Amino acid sequence: MEKIVNIIGAGLAGCEAAYQLAKRNIKVKLYEKKTLKRNPVQKLDYFAELVCSNTLRSSDLKNAVGTLKEEMRMFDSLIIKAAEFAQIPAGGSLAVDRELFSKYITNEMKTNKYIEVIEQEFQKIDKNQITLIASGPLTSKTLQLEISKLIGQDYFYFFDAVAPIITKDSINMNIAFRKNRYEKGETQDYINCPMNKEQYELFHKELVAAQLAPVHLESEQNLKYFEGCMPLEVMAKRGFDTLTFGPLKPAGLRNLDGTNNFAVVQLRQDNAADNLYNFVGFQTNLTWPEQKRVFRLIPGLEKANFVRYGVMHQNNFINSPTVLNEFNQLKSNHNIFFAGQITGVEGYVESTSSGIIAAINIARLINQKELKKFPIDTVMGGLQNYIIATSSKNFQPMKANWSIVENLEIKSKIKKEEKKDMYSNRALNSMKQFIKTLV
Ligand SMILES: Cc1cc2nc3c(=O)[nH]c(=O)nc-3n(C[C@H](O)[C@H](O)[C@H](O)COP(=O)(O)OP(=O)(O)OC[C@H]3O[C@@H](n4cnc5c(N)ncnc54)[C@H](O)[C@@H]3O)c2cc1C
């Protein structure tokens, strides 16, 4: 019997996956509810809506997201084609006219003979049918419950309240030092950035006056009532000392020479490769430029390289390290795949790329071929690997960046920019070779 794939959600990941399956002559039923019931951030009736900014970010191959787009071009990505069709001038970024962009994609979905668009809310997952769940960060309520039932309630999240993440090599270890609070444990796991009173005063002053990101959804107003989710700036506004009794507590974190500090910012290892660190207790609603400006005032972090900024917003995502395998397939039911922001990738381009990974593997499953793990020296593969191989305990969504791509051992000292070129060239060559194996 001919296999038909259900795709839930005609967003970026869902439309890309539908297109990739159609290209491989596989029939798709694409379910989308927005024309009947929009979520609070949707404004258009067209599919694959860019709900906030209108940019797919940098085109520079030195930037991991630039290379990611180039990898996606190798798969004839529909979303990239639509972006190039609807492109508007924006320096080195791929920015689009959002209506033209979404119209182009909707037209492809509605005219492609392999794709049947069904404009209704998908409510019940049939475990015996091949289904791709790409319902995004604002999945409908009924489907949220279905997914929770399918994977277990503990593995489905409703909010994202995360602290920023920086690269380890951008921390000045002449100022910062390794130590656990009260020297507990056998290894020195934390990197600590010490502050004297003057440094803390400046940090506090700038933090309380910094610009906040706009709140998109009413439900986000209540985020602060969630345990452990108080934004850093809200805490700081309660009083000059509040942070020094909270996340910046100096107790048990003396300098290596035994002297005391007025405040200490702690950084915690974020990934197994030990090249990313997150700020302990720094959930924040500051705008991204403000995070960069204010957090770089912390001694030792003057040149911090941010791979992810802190956010506090509604975001439905699953605990991929626990429930997904390397093909974006549910470990407990091989008929069910996930793609897009719901898998814990973050961003328009990243969400789309995970739709390609899922579609290629669904096509292989249907054609009874072995499923394929994308190479981890590519950005697509590195990102996919991050969401399944990172710690399940503090799992938080991730954007494309070079730190999640397989480390490139370079013996000689070279400039950062040259290194990025090397990462990019290696990724693109590796993807070319990988595509040859997809027969
Ligand atoms: C408020 C907000 C702002 C964001 N801003 C940016 C930004 O500026 N830049 C950036 O790179 N990323 C941004 N993101 C993150 C992310 O990149 C986008 O959300 C992106 O659209 C995710 O793509 P997706 O395909 O996973 O989901 P979506 O594009 O959201 O697509 C999911 C689709 O599924 C549909 N759906 C949901 N439930 C059902 C159901 N039961 N039945 C049928 N259809 C259903 C929805 O209507 C939607 O069309 C933002 C996210 C949010 C929530």
Describe this structure in words.
With 439 residues, the chain is an alpha+beta fold. The chain has two domains: 4-160 and 314-436, FAD/NAD(P)-binding domain (3-Layer(bba) Sandwich), CATH 3.50.50.60; 165-309, Elongation Factor Tu (Ef-tu), domain 3 (Beta Barrel). Helix content is 32%, strand content 17%. It is built from 13 helices and 17 strands. The strands form four sheets. The protein has a six-stranded mixed sheet. Strands 10-11-12-13-9-14 form a six-stranded antiparallel sheet. The radius of gyration is 22 Å and the shape is globular. The chain binds flavin-adenine dinucleotide. Flavin-adenine dinucleotide binds next to α1 and α11.
Write a short abstract of this structure.
This protein is of the alpha+beta class and 439 residues long. The protein is built from 13 helices and 17 strands. A six-stranded mixed beta sheet has the order 6-2-1-7-17-16. It has a six-stranded antiparallel beta sheet with strand order 10-11-12-13-9-14. Strands 3-5-4 form a three-stranded antiparallel beta sheet.
CATH topology of the largest domain: FAD/NAD(P)-binding domain
| Structural class by sheet pairing and helices | alpha+beta
Total domain units: 2
What's the overall average pLDDT, rounded? 93
CATH homologous superfamily title of the largest domain = FAD/NAD(P)-binding domain
Low-pLDDT segments, ≥5 res? none
The major pleated sheet works out as: 6 strands, mixed
Give the beta-strand count.
17
Distance between the termini: 23 Å
Tally of individual helices: 13
Categorize the overall geometry. Answer: globular
Cofactors, ions and other ligands in the entry: flavin-adenine dinucleotide
Computed over alpha carbons, the radius of gyration is: 22 Å
The CATH architecture category of the largest domain equals 3-Layer(bba) Sandwich
What is the H/E string? EHEEHHEEHEEHEEEEHHHEEHEEHEEHHH
Strand order of the largest sheet: 6-2-1-7-17-16
Instruction: Report the sheet-strand fraction.
Output: 15-25%
Percent in helix: 25-40%
CATH class of the largest domain: Alpha Beta
